[in-house]
Amino acid sequence: MLTITQLQKRFGKQVILDKVDITIQKGEVVVILGPSGSGKTTFLRCLNFLEQADAGTLALNDQVIDAKKATKQEILAWRRQTAMVFQQYALFAHKTALENVIEGLIMVQKMPKAEAILLGTALLTQVGLADKLTHYPAQLSGGQQQRVGIARALALKPEIILFDEPTSALDPELVGETLAVIKSLAHQESTLIIVTHEMQFAYEVADRVIFMEHGQIVEQGTPKEVFESPKEARTKQFLARTRPNLFEEVFV
């Protein structure tokens, strides 16, 4: 179980995260929605210490740390339990798909290379890239590169996988294949926290949907509750403006 208490982050005078409190159960799929600048990405980055929060407490299993004062050792231990899938893939351009997946296994986890190759091959097969093991990022489509990123995250066997708008950099034709892979991961061992603008995907995959604005959680609930019967006026406004035909697409 992941427990986040009073998480705060500022950039100068601007409040990005405003005392966020949330508890996420093991294996839960949580989708975060909200307008640009609402704090969604910063929230994920603070959870993986890519950004250092200004205040708050993070607890995962038996590890409880001060989000602002965490030591390097605490951050390293925390990161071993989490993995991030980025918008822009963040692959090593000079390494093949397989090499990108096994780099962390060999260099960080000190796994024997032969074992890492077996695991990396299995994971790339799982995400539909068995025939792309020796391809470099420049030889792959955006959707394929994103699936390499997902395989790399899975290789670390994390407790939590953080997805930061994983389809935002993809051509519309390539979005479906990436969403299908993420959907296949739902309700397996890892907890998934997903920032996305894909409303239908959110409805179909999430156990819980969170709507954020101005660094705060405005509303949360099951997909049915949030999409069909939102309680907050701002949530209703966001859903109507973002996808005015959402209800026809999802519910008809």
UniProtKB/TrEMBL annotation:
Keywords of this entry: ATP-binding, Cell membrane, Membrane, Nucleotide-binding, Transport
SMART domains referenced in this protein's UniProt entry, alphabetically: AAA
ABC transporter domain: residues covered: 2-239
One Pfam family recorded for the sequence: ABC_tran
GO terms for cellular component: plasma membrane
UniProt name for this protein: ABC transporter domain-containing protein
Membrane-crossing segments per the record: none
A GO molecular-function annotation: ABC-type amino acid transporter activity
Domain of life where this protein originates: Bacteria
Entry annotated with the keyword Amino-acid biosynthesis: no
Compartments where found: Cell membrane
Membrane topology classification: Peripheral membrane protein
